[in-house]
Design a protein that fits this description.
The chain has one domain. Helix 2 (26-41) packs antiparallel against helix 6 and helix 2 (26-41) packs antiparallel against helix 9 (186-196). It starts with 17 loop residues before the first helix and ends in a 13-residue tail after the last helix. 63% of the residues lie in helices and 2% in strands. The chain has helices at 18-23, 26-41, 44-53, 60-76, 79-94, 111-132, 138-150, 166-179, 186-196, 205-218, 221-226, 233-250, 255-258, 261-273; strands at residues 97-99, 105-107.
Length: 286
Amino acid sequence: MTVYANSDAAGLFGPGSMVWTINREAAVLLGSGLRALLLQVAHPLVAAAVADHSRFRADPIGRLHDTLEAIYSVAFGDIARVQEVVQGITRLHAAVHGRAPDGRPYSALDPDLLLWVYATLIDSSLLAYETFVARLTDAERAASYAEFGRAAPVWGIARERFPSSLTAMRGWMAEQIESGDVQVSRQGRDLGRLILRPPVWWLPAPATLPFELVTVWLLPPRLRHGFGYGWGPRRERSMRLLAAISRRVVTRLPRYLRDLPLARDAERRATSSGASQPRAGRLKDR
């Protein structure tokens, strides 16, 4: 593992970090991006906020691009870029508040909603990596979660609210689903269709079907049903076979085929500046 001198060029994580190791993989983006978005809008209050304040219906591809750009900029950007993105998100979130169809108030700055959204990103990226790239050791999972946790205040999540371990976080997410606090509303189902099948002429349904199947497979069963999808043994066997093949193939591919371009750019930037892995938290809390 390469170690560099400390520098803002490394951003929040830097070369050698588990966050860079996991999120540089194109397979992780393909396996986690849509799943995380569906988990987010499975929360009725998040769905209401997106339905009321987002341009998702008018421009689903553009909105998806902006969301992913913000997430990956925070993961791989230098400190100046991270600061710019976080400030922009904070300004947007300050104006996002209202009431869901059931009458409950929502705010994009609600600590519980912020935690749910961040948890979906962490859970989805780790699950996609282990499903389609390689299994992680317990130590690697713990290191990954610790890095994500150090960055939680950047997203507006107080350290004391962040679950103490990956097991605790996944337990909290399961409780949210089991209790019904997170359940797919009519708005959530409508948004889910837009996410999985964006209504644009140049992206026909057959082209999106593989991503739809992978995303639906990786959802918790109760939410999968909530979005209106059935499942069966044949699909389960097919997806498990696909995942096993992917784990055998992806790790044998050259890095230029596996890596996201922005991850390679970030590594070159950090290497050329002599940057190391700065600890997350160098930005002020939102």
